[in-house]
Write a structure and sequence with these properties.
Elements lengths: L1 H20 L2 H28 L5 H13 L5 H56 L4 H18 L25 H7 L5
Helix pairs in contact: 1-2, 1-3, 2-3, 2-4
């Protein structure tokens, strides 16, 4: 809990104040802190597994965050200038190349899985329609005929929503349903 307050909320508020006041010196100070804190949080994810049994481990972590924040020790500035900045400066090109490759691979993977997902969804819809899944099948068929007549631009051949048009593989002429044919007295068009 104290790490949340002292390690995150306190610096976040003072970062806000630095941005609001446009004080470059304070802004740089808090940016260095956030870089070190991000590295600390990442390392902590792995070290917690192995060092949580160590006496006063959690107290040492709180003391480390306090050391990072202290205006007297300037811990985050010291760590950033001595270790992080030189390391990142020397490895910056390699890191940028890795990030670009990771971004490209993740985009390709997203497109690949997106296409697969759409194919699975389309296949499931076609399978459900082809197996005659009742209302879904009827709904898909009626939409298809309406869409075809709209594409042709033939307003006289639009199918009313209450009439379902079916095509048979034996006949080339579409038939209307029995209830629609009883009203007109004919069995087809």
């Amino acid at each position: 809990f104290s790490r949340l307050i002292f390690g995150t909320l306190y610096p976040a508020y003072y970062s806000y104040k630095a941005v609001k006041s446009k004080d470059i010196k304070e802004y740089v100070k808090w940016m260095m802190y956030w870089i070190i804190f991000a590295l600390f949080t990442t390392a902590e994810t792995f070290t917690d597994i192995f060092l949580c049994w160590f006496p006063f481990y959690y107290e040492l972590k709180i003391a480390f965050v306090a050391w990072l924040l202290s205006p007297y020790t300037k811990g985050s500035s010291l760590l950033y200038r001595k270790f992080v900045h030189p390391t990142l400066s020397s490895k910056e090109k390699e890191i940028d190349d890795c990030l670009v490759q990771a971004k490209d691979r993740s985009y390709d993977a997203l497109v690949h899985f997106g296409k697969r997902g759409l194919n699975v969804a389309a296949t499931a819809a076609v399978m459900a329609a082809s197996k005659g899944q009742g209302a879904l099948s009827e709904r898909l068929r009626s939409f298809s005929m309406q869409d075809l007549s709209t594409i042709r631009g033939d307003s006289s051949s639009t199918v009313p929503p209450s009439v379902t048009v079916r095509t048979s593989s034996k006949q080339s002429q579409p038939k209307t349903s029995r209830s629609a044919s009883e009203g007109t007295g004919s069995s087809g068009r």
